[in-house]
Amino acid sequence: MPDTQLPAPRRWKALALATAAVLTALAANASPAAANDDYDSTYYKNAVGKTGTGLKSALHTIIGPQSKLSYAALWEALKVTDQDPGNSANVLLIYSGKSRAKSLNGGNVGDWNREHVWAKSHGDFGTATGPGTDLHHMRAEDVQVNSIRGNKDFDNGGSPVTGAPGSFTDSDSFEPRDAVKGDVARMILYMAVRYEGGDGFPNLEPNDSTSNGSAPYHGRLSVLKQWNEQDPPDAWEERRNQVIYDTYQHNRNPFIDHPEWVEAIW
Fold this sequence. Notes:
Elements: H1 8-30, H2 37-40, H3 52-63, H4 74-81, E1 83-84, E2 87-92, E3 99-101, E4 112-116, E5 138-142, H5 143-149, E6 153-154, E7 159-161, E8 164-169, E9 173-175, H6 181-194, E10 205-206, E11 217-218, H7 221-230, H8 235-248, H9 254-257, H10 261-265
Parallel strand pairs: 6-9, 10-11
Antiparallel strand pairs: 1-2, 2-3, 4-5, 7-8, 8-9
Helix pairs in contact: 6-7
EC number: 3.1.-.-
Protein name: Extracellular ribonuclease
Region (Disordered): 151-175
């Protein structure tokens, strides 16, 4: 603290400088990005400083090596990755936001099932081990809400979705609730970087269409970019990324660690 023997003007200036230093230190410690600094010097070292196609290519090489799960194994994995922090017996459902018992996994009304955020028909990869089972875009969701979403592209607008407050849909698009808009965007763009057509699977890419059908594209890119900005990664999303890295696939979603890389590439 400043010396109380200093003249008043100098004492107040010293106090202001000391306060600013404390606030700066607190902000640095609170920054989510600070937790990812270690990965910049190791995991991401060949990507840091790049932009555009160079960054995308570097990230593809970095996140490509991964352990792969079977479709059946996703049930137990999702019970861990999507666990409700307020109730360890439950999972959180992505679009509805509801907490549901882990034991209610299945295909009946009232159950939760395995949602492919990048719709598996967009590239026709189904449930094949690889893109069809990649935990970075698999989420728990209510059976009926999952059916309503179907294989629609993502965009703003539509009518309210029954069972998923804050979500909307129309004939060719689905808008998730605000709290997970960024999550959805970062999952879609992870898939576009991870799957480039070189490992027997389609080259997945985002575009600005909402009528992609079975083509290996997913939209709407301009809206996904907005959602990434609007809803930055939170502690739950960061924890999920870490669990997938540590326990299951041993690769990361770079857009959770560095959401600014979305704009740097697209």
